[in-house]
Amino acid sequence: MRHGRPYRGIGVNYYDAFIRCLRNPGDDSYRGGFEELGARGIPFARFNAGAFLADDVRLYLTDRDSYLRRLDGVVAAAEKAHVGLIASLFWNISAVSDAVNEPRVRWADEGSATRQLMRKYTQDIVSRYVNSPAVWGWEFSNELSLPLDRSPGSVPPERALSYDVFQNAALDFAGTVRKIDPRRILLTGNSLPRPNAYHGSVVGRGGPDTEEQFARILLRDNPGPFSPICIHASPASVGSYFADRQVSFQELL
Description:
TIM Barrel
C-alpha cells in the first residue's frame, strides 16, 4: 500500500550512495545518481544507511555530527529527486560487533555493547528521518538469513548465527523502530531461503527441502512485526526448488 492504495514499484539497489561519501567526504556523486534515477522515473532505491566495516562505525562513535551530516546529504538528494529510500541500517552486522570489540554472537545478548550500539544507532537514524518524504521503509540487514541455513559446524563458533540470535536481534531492532515510526514498511532484508535451509538449520543434515518445508523457513525468517515478507531471488537458482516438485521462477515467486 502507498498513500492508501495498492502499490507495485520496481526500484534499484544503490548500495554505496552513502558509503562512498562516508569514506570520502568530498564525494557527492550520489547527487547525480539520484538525479538520474529521478529523471528515469525510478521510484525508489535501497541503500546501505550504515556501516560495512568497523572503521565506518568508528566515525559515528567519534564524530557523530560529521557522520550524520553526510547521511543528511544523501537523504536530501533523494528528496530533491523525488526518489524513495529503503534504508538498510545494519547491512553487515559484524561491523557493529567488531567496532565494540565483541564477537558477532553477542548480537544475541540484549545487554551487550553490540546491542546497545544497535539501539542507539537505530534511534538516531529513524528519529532523524522519520518525517522525510524520501524514506519509504526501514531494513534490518542484508541477507542475514543465509548463514542461519548452514549445518552446525560449518562456520567457527564465534561467527555462527543461530535463528535465536537472528530473531532476538531483529525483533529488538523492529521494536526500536516502531517506537518512533509506526507506519512505514519494515523489512528483514533477508534473501530467499536456500533450497536446503530446513534440512540445514532444523534437521541438522543436508538434503533438499519440500515446498512445505521451504514455506516454514520463509515465515520463520520474516517474523512479525516485519512486513512485507522480504526475499532476494534469482532465476539462476530456481532449478533447486523443490524436493517434491520442480517449479519455474514465476511459480517460485
